[in-house]
Specification:
Largest sheet: 4 strands, mixed
Number of domains: 2
Order of helices and strands: EEHEEEHHHHEHHHH
Number of strands: 6
Shape: elongated
Strand order of the largest sheet: 2-1-4-3
Oligomer: single chain
Strand content: 5-15%
Radius of gyration: 24 Å
Distance between the termini: 46 Å
Helix content: 40-55%
Structural class: alpha+beta
Number of helices: 9
């Protein structure tokens, strides 16, 4: 706590029950993070990442770096919400991305597990398109695992533990569904005149997605939460920043459209549509935040799809 300041008595109130959970002194110059740590000292199970604080029962969540003096508190009350058990973003990403990698390769390498031994011999004689689809799917999730460990810098340390279950069901389930049909002994490949252009587009979008992630990483120095307006660089893949706020999502959608054309399966198409919808929601939210945070943010940019959304 800050020294040499007038101390104030903070009362932490549960939003749901209106019950007072804690009362302790703190300096007006201390941060909301300090309040969370003070609550944690009294209730060890309520570690800071699990706690959300607001200045009113229906108020907005207070950021950790805000000071107590900056927050308009009524009767020195601050309101608590339990976000539930938390898990690190890195753990969530590694789990949800490793699963599809394993599920797809398992069906590719051991078809007898699903199709039975009588059909496995036919499934083992892989078509060229099926082999390439496996490489593309494997590359995509291997890239995601690499980015999780070596590229991404997360603004928040944790997320609710339920998300690891929800996200894993989504990613693992769709990967298994796609693999089932693409590796099926009766699978009919897409004609080469569609397959290879889609393959080229897939490779282009994957490289674009990686380029955007590297650019975003360089905007945030290690160990900080610094935010800045992302701008195009000398890398041509980043020039998409000139027209959209979230080109990483644009490239991601493009990659799965390409994969859907390459494989010609309903499962791939539905996975693409579900992902495109969710990424559009995320992109619109980030686009609004950019425009709210930066007064000089380029007004011509769209959120995810150039000149459209």
């Amino acid at each position: 706590m800050s020294e040499g300041s007038i101390m104030v008595m903070i009362k932490v109130i549960s939003i749901g029950s209106e019950r007072q959970l804690a009362e302790f002194e703190i300096s007006p110059g201390d941060t909301i993070r300090s309040v969370k740590e003070g609550l944690h000292n009294i209730h060890p199970k309520l570690y800071p990442e699990r706690v959300s604080l607001s200045n009113a029962p229906r108020g907005k969540n207070l950021t950790d770096d805000s000071t107590v003096s900056e927050v308009d508190l009524t009767d020195e009350k601050i309101y608590f919400k339990d976000l539930g058990p938390q898990v690190s973003w890195t753990t969530v990403f590694l789990t949800e991305y490793a699963g599809p990698l394993v599920c797809y390769l398992l069906l590719y390498c051991r078809p007898s597990i699903i199709y039975g031994s009588s059909k496995a011999a036919a499934a083992n004689d892989k078509l060229q398109n099926v082999k390439i689809a496996m490489v593309c799917h494997t590359f995509h999730y291997a890239k995601r695992l690499f980015e999780t460990v070596f590229v991404h810098r997360f603004s928040k340390a944790t997320m609710p533990i339920f998300n690891i279950v929800k996200n894993s069901v989504y990613y693992w389930g769709f990967a298994s569904w796609m693999a089932y049909f693409i590796n099926h002994p009766l699978y009919t490949p897409v004609p080469d005149k569609y397959f290879y252009p889609a393959l080229a587009c897939f490779a282009f979008c994957e490289l674009g997605n990686l380029s955007i992630h590297l650019t975003l990483r360089n905007l945030r120095p290690p160990g900080t939460k610094v935010r800045a307006i992302p701008q195009p660089t000398l890398n041509p893949f980043t020039w998409l920043f000139g027209v959209v706020s979230c080109p990483n999502y644009t490239y991601e959608v493009g990659a799965w459209i390409s994969f859907s054309v390459m494989t010609g399966t309903v499962a791939s198409g539905l996975f693409m549509l579900a992902g495109a919808y969710q990424m559009t929601v995320w992109a619109l939210g980030k686009h609004r935040n950019y425009r709210k945070e930066f007064h000089d943010y380029p007004r011509a940019r769209k959120a995810i799809f150039p000149f459209l959304i």
